[in-house]
Amino acid sequence: MTSEAAVSTPAVISSTPAKRDYYWLRSFVAGGVAGCCAKSTIAPLDRVKILLQAHNPHYKHLGVWSTIKAVPKKEGFLGLYKGNGAMMVRIFPYGAIQFMAFDKYKKLLRKQMGISGHIHRLMAGSMAGMTAVIFTYPLDVIRARLAFQVTGDHRYTGIANAFHTIYLKEGGVMGFYRGLTPTLIGMAPYAGFSFFTYGTLKTLGLKHFPERLGRPSSDNPDVLVLKTHVNLLCGGVAGAIAQTISYPLDVARRRMQLGAVLPDSEKCTSLSKTLKYVYNEYGVKKGLYRGLSLNYIRCVPSQAVAFTTYEFMKQTLHLN
User: Fold this and answer.
1) Chain CA centroid to CA 34, Å
2) Closest CA to 101 of 113, 111, 89, 109
């Protein structure tokens, strides 16, 4: 029995041409479903994070838990899910592209460039994250704008209206890519360390404790995969480490994305200016790392569910 963690790319799927022909599609679906499941579990926390990061005037005086309680009182229970429709439209292709690109980049680095070992996970993860961001960034901007709105103080009526308004009033297509630079810079360490940490923990676990931590894959008994609870733990640890490293860049990204919605938007026109402004105005704890406690609570289950669901989908769709 071989360890799945030791195999950087899936083996030949099947002798059936149809399955081999549609491998990319099944891989795309597996990543998309994993992304949607992960984000759906933490949608309310994601809304609160955006409100706190950008210092929404309706909630800027509150902390994480106070905001979680205040949003339903002010906007109803569904207020916790505001912007989630745009999130699902974005996250399916994002998750699909990220996981599929990770496998492709990992194979490229190993076979074409001779880069192997743990470092190729870090590099492949970084490149996969940035690739997914570039393809889905406009939807992320729309989702952030909708999530930032508060009932009774709406600038946009929905996804289509947000697209139309931003295009007309914020420079056309470039309006949808405001904050792309800090997003890419932040995504490189986040995705890189996320895949790196998860892959490393998975490899070490299956190598040193195969019977305790592993089990045969449901679609290929010759491949050893992590047990579900171990998968969740490894994914959660990976998410916590990755978020800690990249969080200040995420704060800068959100403020730049929100653009004209913020009263101090003219001070957040570039990555360096935004980071400097947030640091000078609010400091480290209340500025660059504002909402980090919430981010730990949301990123741990999110990454845990993402990696675990992807592993489950790989078995369901016969990708091992």
Assistant:
1) 11
2) 109
Answer for the pair 108, 154: CB distance below 8 angstroms, yes or no.
no
Tell me the CA distances in angstroms from 107 to 27, 202, 260, 265, one per residue in order.
15, 18, 42, 42
pLDDT in tens, 56-106: 888 878 887 888 889 998 888 888 888 777 778 889 999 999 999 999 999
250-265: buried (b, 16+ CB within 10 Å) or exposed (e) per residue? bbbbbbbbbbebbeee
Q: Helix, strand, or coil here: 216?
A: strand
pLDDT tens, 147-169? 778 767 778 888 889 999 999 98
Parallel/antiparallel/unpaired status of strands 223-226 and 214-216: antiparallel
> Strands 214-216, 2-3: parallel, antiparallel or unpaired by DSSP?
unpaired
Contacts of 190 (CB under 8 A, 6+ apart): 129, 242, 243, 245, 246, 250
Q: Does an H or E element contain 68, and which? A: helix 64-75
Cα-trace Rg, the chain: 20
Tell me how far CA of residue 210 lies from CA of 8, 22, 302, in angstroms: 18, 31, 25
Sheet (strand 214-216) strand order: 2-3, 223-226, 214-216
Structure tokens at 151: 């009932």
DSSP state of 150: B
Contact by Cβ (8 Å): 268, 262: yes
Distance (Å) of CA 264 to CA 83, 259, 291: 23, 9, 19
Using DSSP, state whether 76 is helix, strand or coil: coil
